[in-house]
Amino acid sequence: DVKVTQSSRYLVKRTGEKVFLECVQDMDHENMFWYRQDPGLGLRLIYFSYDVKMKEKGDIPEGYSVSREKKERFSLILESASTNQTSMYLCASSLSWSTNEKLFFGSGTQLSVL
Amino acid sequence: AQTVTQSQPEMSVQEAETVTLSCTYDTSENNYYLFWYKQPPSRQMILVIRQEAYKQQNATENRFSVNFQKAAKSFSLKISDSQLGDTAMYFCAWVYGGATNKLIFGTGTLLAVQP
Q: Which of these CATH numbers, 2.60.40.10, 3.20.20.140, 2.30.30.60, 1.10.3810.10, describes A16-95?
């Protein structure tokens, strides 16, 4: 089975801190995604990557950046964390460009910014 | 802009009963795919079922089936013989067939299966 691992299940950070959320997948998937999940808003796409060093903005990229130096790893970076970035962050991967490919998700990181 | 709407924030069903979760979407595209994802308390989302818009036949996966009404832009999920393990948040999602798989998700329906 595909495994998508997010490094932290819970994180507490201070306003202004630089925050790194790490995600690793073990099945050589081309695509990787970062979503933010908020009650009443569903999942919103922050960034996605379709290859090493390639990235595209999603619907809510402001305040975030990403890094994909290796195919299996996709990092989400909050350059200067703010309280409105308190949320659940979900990483996902999919095998290819094919649009009916299912996504494989990690277990999420609940980030609290104080 | 494409949108996906789940009008039922929470639902409850008795074990062994049948429940239907609603989803509507808005798009002018003709080539797209629809999905239902399940997020249990463990938080790891898994795919429940998917439907290609060009297929008229409704998708089924064991106890899960969909009622896909393309003209009405409706994509409901029916869970038969509900089990306690079905307790989860369910998300409906849409993706345009001509792009990368950037899914648009609904806001979710929290389903509680009661013993």
A: 2.60.40.10
Q: Which chain A residues touch B37 with a CB distance below 8 Å? A: 103
Contact between chains at A50 and B100 (C-beta distance less than 8 A): yes
> Rounded to an integer, what distance in angstroms lies between the CA atom of residue A66 and that of residue A75?
5
Encoded tokens for B45: 């989302």
**Tens-level pLDDT at each residue, chain A (114 residues):** 669 999 899 999 999 999 999 999 998 998 999 999 999 999 999 999 988 988 999 999 999 999 999 999 999 999 999 999 999 999 999 887 666 678 899 999 999 999
CATH classification code of B3-114: 2.60.40.10
Q: What are phi and psi for residue B85, nearest 5 degrees?
A: -70, -5
